[in-house]
Amino acid sequence: MASKIVLAAAAVVLIAAGGVATLAVKPPELLRVGANYGAKIVCSNVFIAGRDGQAVLADDVQAPGHPVLKYLKVQVDQQRQTVRAQFFGFVGDGLAVFRPGTGCAAAPDGDAAQAAQYKFNPIKIWGPSPNVPWPTGSMEETNPAVQALLAQDALAGPGMRGMAVIHRGRLVAQRYGAGFTAASPLLGWSMTKTVSAVLAGMQIADGRLSLQQSGFWPAGDQRAQITLAQLMSMSSGLRWNEGYGDVSDATRMLYLEPDMAAFTATLPLEQAPGSKWNYSSGGTVLLSRIWQRAAGGDARAAVSAAVLSLPHDRLFAPLGMSSAVIEADARGNLVGSSYMYATTQDWARFGQFLLQDGVWQGKRYLPDGFVSGMQQVAPASGGAYGQGSVWRYGPSGATPEGQNPDTRFQLPADTYWMEGHDGQSIAIVPSQQLVVVRLGLTPHRLLYQPQALLAAVVKAVQQ
């Protein structure tokens, strides 16, 4: 009997050891997604935002995420400027690498050297002077009534990290969460999509692209019918699953594919182009590759330093957005769907740029009428989405699907939004000359809606 117990125990140990070995050699894809996600978020916040890696892991990755993420451990290598992440210290092999100019990239193939090639040396953008009024400087011209609204925690929402209100081109109120300041670069997530649409608009202004241009796949491929405008309005017809809680098209692209654009370009056509609206980060990554290649003039342009620097040189520098970075993936595709970091005031500068119809300091950077076209409802979206990667509604909160969540807040009819994962938003109200930025770490399950803040600010500036 004793020998049988020993043999049984030995068998259990061997099976357990085999399972551990299998996890180490071939971990489930979901664990690989989690490890690369953790490495990427920590890398960006350490090397772009200057935060502590372990604090980022705890606050940004583990606290709001899946319970299994509490078993994730990260190692930050300051000398090599890399971050490695593993579950239980040996599962997942997450890796991210920082590059000057293009921030951090997840390297799911483990090739840090390849990912590190895609970089550039940014030209200096001088930081805004605290003694010069916004937007040229950072001086606030406070409206006490608006500042009092930002001080209300219920309006600011849980997890708020940065807020700014711009009225008639002046910074009239701002507030920052504990541990964050006006100098803290913050991730905009899908607000980056609107920036990508504007960068495509700049190539249209240069005559290198047009909204009705197609042919982005080989002749004879049905996907070659997809136009630039359809990619920009989420109406391409390409199959796409934007879910974030599992291994979906979105999470695979962001955390398992070193070449995000190449992955998305392989997806099949599911609907006739223009016939159905389907929110797609993959479509915006393809849009980004298109404007990158247009700027460079050939298919190799996506990996050139001159093209990688395009957002910095053509958009951020003229607007004085000294903190802004759009990150590139491990093959040099600028991730126009998801990965732009900027301070709260620099996000506000971009919002003000849209409010001013693509004009800054008297110079036009976008085609006349392009910004108004961005706001026009995408026909297949049921009124929810604009033709230029903007939202016609604010965040849904608990509003039933299919209903306009802005209705009960009685917002001005011309309000439109930039929105990003975990509570990022910029509301733009042309009729009130108003831009309201709200950034933070606020998961959707908390049902926070910035519309209440915007409605209160609108009333305050009208008095």
UniProtKB/TrEMBL annotation:
InterPro entries to which the protein is assigned, alphabetical: Beta-lactam-related (IPR001466), Beta-lactam/transpept-like (IPR012338), Diverse_Enzym_Activities (IPR050789)
Keywords associated with the record: Hydrolase
Pfam family, one: Beta-lactamase
SUPFAM superfamilies: beta-lactamase/transpeptidase-like (SSF56601)
Keyword Lipid biosynthesis: no
Residue ranges of every copy of the Beta-lactamase-related domain listed in the record: 158-439
GO molecular function ontology, one term from the record: hydrolase activity
Protein name stated in the entry: Serine hydrolase
Organism per entry: Duganella margarita
Organism classification: Bacteria, Pseudomonadati, Pseudomonadota, Betaproteobacteria, Burkholderiales
